[in-house]
């Protein structure tokens, strides 16, 4: 499945039909109910397509999402939904200039420090819509690690010690 093509097609179709919010809600709803067993059921060649279609109809998704889901069910590619959802979420966040970062620290940080970090990230990402998820990692000695979409800036003391040991 070409996830980027699917994301773009769904987005453009929903935007043209003025159903973007409905489609976004349907995609999120489907993501919340999806389990391994449900994926196996929808991808199974042993289950009649009409049974699968009836099941999807019970969710009352918007027509765009429902048609797309039926298509990936027919192609037995529901197992690809999690990857699609990640790409879809990144696409929507990029359009809205939303940035979500994870911040890993050894100890809780003050509101002032959080505000300073957010201000630095705001200028770096050129957006005012930054969401920080603070994680306390007791394995760290000190410092901070910031991750965004799989890219990390690791300025933890533990990493610096590891780098120092490599040099020595």
Describe the structure.
With 168 residues, this protein is of the alpha+beta class. It folds into two domains: 3-93; 99-167. The protein is built from eight helices and four strands, in the order ααααααβαβββα. The protein has helices at residues 3-16, 20-33, 36-43, 49-57, 63-74, 81-95, 111-125, 157-167; strands at 98-105, 129-136, 143-148, 151-156. A four-stranded mixed sheet has the order 2-1-3-4. β1 (98-105), α7 and β2 form a beta-alpha-beta unit. α1 (3-16) packs across α6 (81-95) and α4 packs antiparallel against α5. The longest helix is centred in the middle third of the chain and has 15 residues, at 81-95. It is elongated. The termini are far apart.
Helix-strand layout with pairing:
Layout (H helix, E strand, L loop, with lengths): L2 H14 L3 H14 L2 H8 L5 H9 L5 H12 L6 H15 L2 E8 L5 H15 L3 E8 L6 E6 L2 E6 H11 L1
| Range of helix content | 55-70%
- Overall shape: it is elongated
Beta-strand residue fraction: 15-25%
> Major sheet, described briefly?
4 strands, mixed
Order of helices and strands: HHHHHHEHEEEH
Q: How many distinct folded domains?
A: 2
